[in-house]
Amino acid sequence: MDITNFVMMETGQPLHAFDLDLVKGKTIIVRKSKPGETICTLDDVERQLPANSLVIADIEEPIALAGIMGGKHSEIDQNTKNVFLESAYFNSINNRRSTAKFGLRTEASNRFEKGIDKEVQIYALDRAAYLINKIAMGKISSGKIDTNKKLYQPNKINLRIKRVNKILGQLLDEDESKTKNKIIKILDKLEFKVVEDKGECVEVIPPSFRGDVEREIDIIEEIARIYGYDKIKPTLFNTTIAQEGENFRLKVLDQVR
After folding, report:
1. Could you tell me which residues come within 8 angstroms of residue 184 by beta carbon, excluding any fewer than 6 positions away?
2. Domain for residue 93, yes or no?
3. Rounded to 10 degrees, what is the CA torsion of 34, 37, 43, 45?
4. Is the residue at 148 inside a domain?
5. Tens of pLDDT, residues 153-200
6. In which domain, by residue range, is 37 found?
7. pLDDT tens-digit readout, 95-138
8. 15: which residues sit within 8 A by CB, 6+ positions away?
9. Which of 70, 140, 166, 203 lies in disulfide reach of 64, CB 3.0 to 4.6 Å?
10. 34 & 100 share domain
11. Residue 27, domain CATH
12. Whether residue 101 is found in the same domain as residue 217
């Protein structure tokens, strides 16, 4: 458990370890809960499962609340000999709903709710297995089961250099050419991949762990953050704001009073 928690802190990927000898049929099934099903979670609470809650189950019963907490029945203890490691990606919206249903919030559910890297599951699994082997002298079984449906689809975003300058209200360097080079360097430091230079704009792919970056303005915000808000010079409006006073409705109300 210490290793799975360590890897979660290291990579941001929650993991769960099952005692494989306590998993009936040695089979793991991801499914929706059935009417009347219950589960005793690791906090020793017997929970009634709401209909259609996502669970991890063996061939007979649920053994974990998907993305939230494991079950007591398949818990690792001093007598465990065979360990099954689970490294999964759960939909953030669905996970948030399940957390609300159970009134149960954990380190794992917090991360799934906010969205995790869709490409780190296998790395985290291999990392945990490596540490179990090196620290606990565990023997790693060959192969792994991967049901990845390629959830991660790179999001290509066109970033206009002039748009960056307009939003920030200034050039980031002496001229537009140097400004563009500076922007590309900032993106490189943030692990944003510039896949094509189109002259006045560049095509950018955010890293898989930055699911919050979806639009051009999101990238501009990242550029401003790294460049330094303190370096952006404050300027006044270059136009006059008309003061029209009260509207007709307010004038009538004043007269009525």
Report:
1. 194, 202
2. yes
3. 140
4. no
5. 888 999 999 999 999 988 888 888 899 999 999 999 999 999 988 888
6. 2-135
7. 898 888 888 899 999 999 988 998 899 999 999 999 999 998 88
8. 4, 7, 8, 85, 86, 87, 124, 125, 128
9. 70
10. yes
11. 3.50.40.10
12. no
